[in-house]
Write a structure and sequence with these properties.
Blueprint (H helix, E strand, L loop, with lengths): L1 H19 L2 H24 L21 H10 L3 H10 L4 H6 L2 H6 L4 H34 L5 E2 L5 E2 L1 H18 L1 H11 L5 H19 L29 H28 L5
Antiparallel strand pairs: 1-2
Helix pairs in contact: 1-7, 2-3, 2-7, 3-7, 3-8, 4-7, 4-9, 4-10, 7-8, 7-9, 9-10, 9-11
Length: 277
């Protein structure tokens, strides 16, 4: 048992080093890190030109407190940029190995298919967490430089301390990261269906886009609570006086369901797949 855990740990460390050592991964993280920097520059130049009432309610508040840049940057990245980068990573997990001809080699080593799949999925999830953390860290840094960090005025007008405000921003980041777990599971599953990584990446993005489109149709209100993207923006609960944890729990429960379904499908597919490359 301890030998199995040791081999899995080595496999996981190897996969993490491989992913975060790629130039593509670093380029994706750098692109996400640039978003809060560019946003802060634009808002700094445009401050005093009547930002209130334009876009989400917290955009105009960024110039008054850099903490709001965390929410603004995540809000901008969540609909497309974050799903795109996660699709690139998760869609490449199995399909990338198959295309490179290394998947068959990996399976000839003393590594069970289930452990390999779990390691790949955890690495894809690690990228999702890293992506959100990079955006959050750069938002705090840029917000502090351009607008300063201070006591946080919530959407209701109540003011909380800087420490509480930072804690709430970290809560926002944590919720966003956990809200992306379902998309990671979808990407890993699709990656087991093909030997073409680009196809898996594109299909994963399509799932996210279709979910967003369906969520915008009032005629389909009955299925909205179960859609992958429906609860992504519930992080706004952290900007209220009292956080409604039941709302956040509902959103995370949906992600658990998506992970359970598509994780099981990925396992069933990969366990029975005839690996020829």
């Amino acid at each position: 048992m301890s030998r199995a855990r040791g081999s899995f740990g080595r496999l996981l460390r190897s996969e993490l080093a491989l992913l975060f050592g790629r130039r593509r991964t670093l380029a994706l993280l750098a692109g996400l890190a640039a978003v809060p920097v560019l946003l802060s520059v634009v808002l700094f130049i445009a401050q005093g030109q009547g930002l209130d009432g334009q876009g989400p309610g917290f955009i105009g508040r960024v110039t008054g407190n850099g903490l709001f840049l965390v929410v603004a940057a995540l809000f901008m990245c969540l609909p497309f940029l974050l799903p795109l980068t996660i699709a690139i990573t998760s869609g490449d997990t199995i399909a990338g190995e198959a295309q490179a001809g290394t998947l068959r080699y990996l399976l000839t080593l003393p590594v069970a298919r289930t452990r390999l799949l779990v390691a790949k999925a955890l690495v894809a999830l690690a990228f999702a967490v890293a992506a959100v953390l990079v955006i959050t860290a750069m938002s705090l840094a840029s917000g502090g430089v351009f607008f300063g960090l201070g006591e946080l005025t919530l959407l209701s007008g109540t003011t909380v301390s800087l420490g509480d405000g930072i804690g709430r921003m970290l809560g926002v980041a944590g919720y966003v990261a956990m809200s992306l777990t379902g998309l990671v599971a979808v990407g890993v599953f699709i990656s087991t269906l093909t030997e073409v990584p680009v196809g898996a990446m594109a299909a994963t993005v399509v799932v996210s886009v279709v979910s967003t489109v369906l969520d915008s149709l009032p005629q389909l209100a009955a299925i909205h609570p179960y859609l992958l993207t429906h609860h992504w923006f519930d992080f706004a609960e952290f900007l209220r006086i009292e956080v409604d944890w039941s709302v956040l729990a509902s959103g995370l429960l949906v992600q658990v369901a998506w992970v359970a379904v598509f994780g099981s499908l990925a396992w069933a597919r990969f366990r029975s797949a005839d690996v020829t490359s």
